[in-house]
């Protein structure tokens, strides 16, 4: 399907694009992403049948999975709703639906930012990482607006541009992209910045309540705290009107720590 | 509680140790880990009330959490079973139980290896990563034996040694340790090796079945494939009788890719 000329990749026919997300197959974010991808290639959708935010890289090992072909846009593309996590969706898409590797996997568009350490909690980004681990170029897209009615119109052309550049250039070995968009009108978006992940994390505060039977229960809440003053981070880019693109790796080895650990008395 | 002298840390009183896992609070692996940690410091246990293998870095955002004090070993240590994921356990332990940061967090001992890319799927390791992200030195321990009746006896002295070395030396900023043990008699364990994460992943093969109502469903199965011939990997260490220690980072930025991405037409 593809030919290589130097480092560039030319598609002889339309690329096969796997689309997934973590907000569920009916979310406006994935519907927007599907509409953009249909302009670029042949689209197959395998996405969760229910919201899966915050599922990280969870997989379903102790339960069964259901897969249902669905017809949402009433057009020719193949869409499947899966009862599992976003990572399950990528795995089952490769093994049971496409029965091969797609040319690219795009995940999102997430309702809410996945910048900084959110990349680790994010089902959207974990789906992209899973595709990358299977040798598929992969991108996760997120808009810094948690609303179900978020306006994806201003970012459509950038999603298309970044996807097309990825298809053209390929991605470095072992890398997927975490793309986050600020919540801005198109004319106020200043451009695209290649960034590093900001050192910013959640500080939790659980909300303790008592149920009608007298038993205590908790809701997870928290405050996102950015300790990172760098101007090369995704948080800085988003706060300053830029789209952030962070190359994300899944070899988690802290190579810089190996030497120090080798001095230990082990 | 601690004083710093150069790079060494001396505890003036017993260190406070948070213990968690992903196999559930009654699993023999965590019971072994608790017994070892009681020799080192003051122990608080917050662990899942049910098996949570493969939950990765999932958190519970769309549901409530329950927390129940339990008395398993009938001694003085505080133990809590949590209805959430391993990452939830770490978060709720800090905010609701300890109400401070423990001196160290240990997770496991997992029934089954978390070497290579398994680190990303592992609830055990995600709990350690979560503690690291909160600024707590953290270790995940896993034994390459999935059996509930796995024999943890041969590895007890090594678990103690690695924990004590971590308390003594501290960990480099942004790093937690992924410690995996081969399934061997103590006399056959050759030693401890600092390693990198092997490039080895799962190739999925879903097992398709039909339920009594005629509906298809799937079980996730797969084969673990190691493409990595390096002798500095965790897979090599385990296959050759060594305990593997991989320093794991949670800044996922692929810094080596930034330069290349900056040549794109974005």
Please tell me about this protein's structure:
The structure is a homodimer of 266-residue chains. Chain A has 266 residues and is an alpha/beta fold. Chain A has one domain (2-198, 230-261): Survival protein SurE-like phosphatase/nucleotidase (Stationary-phase Survival Protein Sure Homolog, Chain: A, 3-Layer(aba) Sandwich), CATH 3.40.1210. Helix content of chain A is 24%, strand content 30%. Chain A has helices spanning 28-37, 86-97, 118-121, 123-133, 156-169, 234-239, 255-261; strands spanning 2-5, 8-11, 16-20, 42-48, 67-70, 78-82, 104-111, 138-143, 175-181, 191-194, 200-204, 207-210, 216-219, 222-226, 242-249. In chain A, helix 1 crosses helix 5 (156-169) and helix 2 (86-97) runs parallel beside helix 4. The longest helix of chain A has 14 residues, at 156-169. Chain A is globular and about 55 Å long. Chain A starts with a strand and ends in a 5-residue tail after the last helix. The relative contact order of chain A is 0.14. At the A-B interface, helix 2, helix 3, helix 4, helix 5 and strand 10 of A face helix 2, helix 3, helix 4, helix 5 and strand 10 of B. Chains A, B: It catalyses: a ribonucleoside 5'-phosphate + H2O = a ribonucleoside + phosphate. Chains A, B: One of its GO terms (molecular function) is 5'-nucleotidase activity. Chains A, B: Pfam families: SurE.
């Amino acid at each position: 399907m593809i030919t290589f000329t130097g480092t560039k990749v030319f598609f002889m026919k339309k690329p096969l694009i796997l689309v997934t997300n973590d907000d569920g197959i009916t979310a406006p974010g994935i519907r927007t992403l599907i509409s953009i991808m249909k302009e670029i290639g042949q689209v197959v959708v395998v996405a969760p049948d229910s919201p899966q935010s915050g599922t990280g890289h969870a997989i379903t090992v102790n339960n069964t999975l259901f897969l249902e072909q669905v017809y949402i846009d009433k057009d020719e593309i193949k869409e499947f709703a899966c009862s599992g996590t976003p990572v399950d969706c990528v795995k089952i898409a490769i093994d049971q639906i496409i029965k091969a590797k797609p040319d690219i996997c795009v995940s999102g568009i997430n309702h809410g930012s996945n910048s900084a350490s959110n990349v680790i909690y994010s089902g959207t980004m974990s789906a992209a990482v899973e595709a990358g681990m299977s040798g598929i170029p992969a991108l996760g897209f997120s808009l810094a607006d948690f609303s179900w009615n978020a306006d994806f119109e201003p970012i459509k052309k950038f999603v298309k541009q970044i996807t097309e550049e990825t298809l053209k250039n390929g991605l470095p070995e072992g890398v997927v992209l975490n793309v986050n968009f600020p919540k801005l009108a198109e004319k106020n978006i200043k451009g695209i910045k290649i960034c590093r992940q900001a050192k910013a994390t959640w500080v939790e505060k659980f909300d303790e309540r008592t149920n009608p039977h007298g038993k205590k229960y908790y809701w997870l809440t928290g405050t996102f705290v950015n300790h990172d003053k760098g101007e090369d981070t995704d948080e800085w880019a988003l706060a300053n009107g830029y789209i952030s693109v962070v190359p994300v790796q899944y070899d988690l080895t802290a190579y810089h720590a190996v030497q120090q650990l080798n001095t230990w008395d082990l």
